[in-house]
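U., I forgot to send this yesterday:
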Amino acid sequence: MKTYFVDSFTNQKFKGNPAAVCITDSDLDNATMQNIATEIGFSETAFIRQIADNAYTIRFFTPKKEIPLCGHATLASSKIIFDTTDFQTISFLNCDNIELVIQKAGNEIVMQFPVYETEAITVPKNLLAALGIEDLLTTRFSPKNRIILIEIADSEKLAGLHPNFPALIQSYEGINGVLVTAQSKDPAFDFQYRYFWPWAGTDEDPVTGAVQTFLTKYWATKLNRRKLKVFQSSARTGRMTTELLEDKVLIYGEAVTVLEGSFKL
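Result:
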């Protein structure tokens, strides 16, 4: 099975978020895909299969479970297809039958994702303590993603967080992750964020695109701005531009292929 490693949301190797892209000729069973994702160990592995001229199915597996949507693995998969075909526009169909339309735009790839709402939530003090957060501005919850959003005031404190992950897992049940965000002190960006998800994937996701399904609307409303410059202040760092439309969010990003090979099934 043809397999690629791609660093997403960056134009530099060994930055951004690494994803594996596996190109399948036929459907693989869930156990095999999960074993492959666990073996590779990246936060996500994408399995893509061509079903029409420029249309593909796509499925995403973390080392622990399947998830319905992943931004950086979609970007990685798009990078491989655009580099190996003449297509300028492609579409992916995920496990929830959501169509993701992707376009090539020079060095960037533009992904069209759905927009999801958030609702108010109160989080327990032990969750905040596990994150190392003492003061916060807002807490919200994305039911579709099962992700808690926490806004704090200082992007430098955001970059300096060192969560206690065993305590974090024990602090809350029934979620996929916690996203912490802050308005950026760096004038090159509008907001910054980090995503911790030991419940469903790895401790911290280096760069997360799928959270823009609710995070872009949150900041677009707060800042009264449709197009936003975004920085993920993880150890590897990553950057993207997002744009809020009526019922879609556009995610602009770059990616770099770092490995090409074959997975022996």
